Amino acid sequence: MHTDWRCDEDGPVPPLHVAEHVGADIVAGVLAAVEKAQEASGRPPVPAWCPWPLPPGWTMTGVAWAGDDRTGVRATAVACSGPSPLRGGPADLVFVAEEPGVGLGNRFGGLPGPDPGALIADALGDEGSPGVTTVDLTRRSKWAVIRLHFGL
Fold first, then answer.
1. Are the C-beta atoms of residues 103 and 118 closer than 8 Å to each other?
2. Is a pLDDT exceeding 80 seen at residue 37?
3. Residues 7, 13, 15, 17, CA torsion sign
4. N or C: which end of the chain has fewer CB atoms below 10 A?
5. What is the pLDDT of residues 16-31, one digit of tens each?
6. What kind and span of H or E run contains 73?
7. Residue 69: is it exposed, middle or buried by C-beta count within 10 angstroms (0-12/13-18/19+)?
């Protein structure tokens, strides 16, 4: 019998905790829980990223963390929503901070596995313009729209 949380595809994963609603007291409580779990496990702290001050019309809409008292917090996620600065209409952002191999960012991005490294390496093998390599993961997932440009 395992005490780990398990994914059928990826094996042991840290449990994901999601706050039911967001407010100053909830965020403070989540940050305190993250700090307490880190002290208990002896792991370095994982940040919870959020732009501050938020742009006009934006609000924090969610906060989550992955881990427990035994393993410590290994990932955090903060969700924000507001008007799109580029095309109008609504926009959502999720900021994820995680230790390598946790997979929370991949889960939110709709990518398989705990680490996007293989997908990025695959995409880097594609031919690009001389001096600039474009990594396009849009064809890998209907949710992930990631374009990285590397000056090589």
1. no
2. no
3. negative
4. N
5. 888 888 888 888 888 8
6. strand 72-83
7. exposed
Q: For the chain, how big is the Rg over CA atoms in Å?
A: 18
Is the Cβ–Cβ distance between 104 and 75 less than 8 Å? yes
Peptide bond just before 53 cis, omega within 30 deg: yes
Q: Are 27 and 60 in contact (CB under 8 A)?
A: yes
- Average confidence (pLDDT) over 58-72: 86
And the tokens for 90?
A: 């609504």
How far apart are alpha carbons 75 and 14 in whole angstroms? 9
Angle, CA 57 vertex, CA 54 and CA 60 arms, to 5°: 50
- Average pLDDT taken over every residue of the chain: 76
